[in-house]
């Protein structure tokens, strides 16, 4: 019995720590770029996939849903070919803007590919090993001889190198509570407008900001990554910079307790 209790406690501890957000921890290997490069990576295949299978936005949840069940074997193979094309590129040969688009698109495409490989599934958190909370620590691709995980891309490359809080609105974890999978592939030529659009869309959804019985309810993203958004005053100001809803004044003057929530259900069009 004692061994069973100890085992159960260890499982609970592992699950709780596994579901915590990783810290931003620079992988120096990727902190280089070639600013003289004018190479533009084509992300057309990813944009075509999105327009075909992720065009619908559910008005009830403000979520761009993916029609996973409708993806043909041919189009899944094309998606895998696109990911393979990306991994054949040395991202260090690209300029910083191209690198940003490269890593975000690789993250999002690889996440959709993971879901398709395991579909049907109720939540991405069900993927990974028995002791895993999702697949984020699984080595999913190899780039320039390095095995890469989704956590590597987000927390060891994107966050520490670019230090842009809008990264959290660009990467998508295939869940209802996540900022939407963007309508098209990210492109270096229009990164600023795309990031601003993704940020504004999420902040003006109930997934990000809402009031229930006078209490401010925010996305758990702002709790998990509080280090990126600053203290409560800085976070509120960040939200106000984009919020266009009728509760602007209420948000601006709010001084009560904040509650955080997140919906891990699959962003699936049924």
SSE inventory with pairings:
Elements: H1 2-18, H2 44-53, E1 56-58, E2 63-65, H3 73-87, H4 96-118, E3 139-143, E4 146-149, H5 150-162, H6 167-170, H7 191-203, E5 209-212, E6 215-219, H8 221-224, H9 226-229, H10 232-240, H11 248-253, E7 258-261
Parallel strand pairs: 6-7
Antiparallel strand pairs: 1-2, 3-4, 5-6
Helix pairs in contact: 3-4, 4-5
Keywords: Signal
Protein name: DUF547 domain-containing protein
Pfam families: DUF547 (PF04784)
Notes on the structure:
It comes from Alkalimarinus sediminis. Residues 93-203 form the DUF547 domain. Keywords: Signal. InterPro entries: DUF547. This is DUF547 domain-containing protein. Strand 5 and strand 6 form a beta hairpin. Helix 3 runs antiparallel to helix 4 (96-118) and helix 4 packs antiparallel against helix 5. 44% of the residues lie in helices and 10% in strands. The strands form three sheets. A three-stranded mixed sheet has the order 5-6-7. It has a two-stranded antiparallel ribbon with strand order 1-2. Strands 3-4 form a two-stranded antiparallel ribbon. The model is unreliable at 1-19 (pLDDT under 50). It has eleven helices and seven strands. The chain has one domain. The chain is mostly helical and 270 residues long.
- The total beta strand count reads 7
Low-confidence stretches: 1-19
For the biggest sheet, the summary is: 3 strands, mixed
Report the sheet-strand fraction. Answer: 5-15%
What is the SS-derived class? Answer: mainly alpha
- Outline type: globular
**Quaternary:** single chain
Q: What's the end-to-end separation, in Å? A: 44 Å
State the domain count.
1
> Which strand order do you get reading across the main beta sheet?
5-6-7
- Would you tell me the overall average pLDDT? 93
**Which percent range fits the helix content?**
40-55%
Order of helices and strands: HHEEHHEEHHHEEHHHHE
């Amino acid at each position: 019995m004692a061994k069973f209790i100890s085992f159960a406690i260890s499982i609970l501890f592992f699950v709780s720590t596994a579901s915590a957000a990783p810290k931003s921890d620079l992988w120096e290997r990727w902190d280089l770029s070639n600013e003289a490069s004018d190479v533009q990576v084509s992300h057309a295949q990813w944009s075509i996939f999105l327009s075909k299978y992720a065009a619908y936005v559910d008005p009830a949840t403000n979520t761009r849903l993916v029609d996973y069940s409708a993806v043909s074997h041919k189009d899944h193979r094309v998606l895998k070919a696109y990911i393979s094309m990306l991994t054949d590129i040395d991202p260090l040969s690209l300029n910083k803007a191209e690198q940003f688009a490269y890593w975000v698109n690789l993250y999002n495409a690889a996440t959709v590919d993971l879901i398709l490989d395991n579909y049907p599934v109720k939540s991405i958190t069900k993927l990974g090993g028995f002791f895993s909370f999702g697949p984020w620590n699984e080595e999913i691709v190899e780039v320039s001889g390095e095995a890469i995980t989704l956590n590597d891309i987000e927390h060891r490359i994107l966050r520490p190198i670019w230090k842009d809080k809008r990264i959290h609105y660009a990467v998508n974890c295939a869940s209802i509570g996540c900022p939407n999978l963007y309508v098209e592939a990210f492109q270096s030529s229009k990164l600023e407008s795309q990031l601003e659009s993704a940020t504004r869309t999420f902040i003006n959804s109930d997934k990000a900001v809402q009031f229930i019985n006078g209490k401010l309810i925010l996305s758990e993203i702002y709790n998990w990554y509080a280090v990126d958004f600053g203290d409560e005053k800085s976070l509120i100001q960040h939200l106000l910079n984009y919020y266009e809803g009728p509760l602007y004044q209420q948000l601006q003057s709010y001084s009560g307790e904040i509650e955080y929530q997140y919906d891990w259900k699959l962003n699936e069009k049924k």
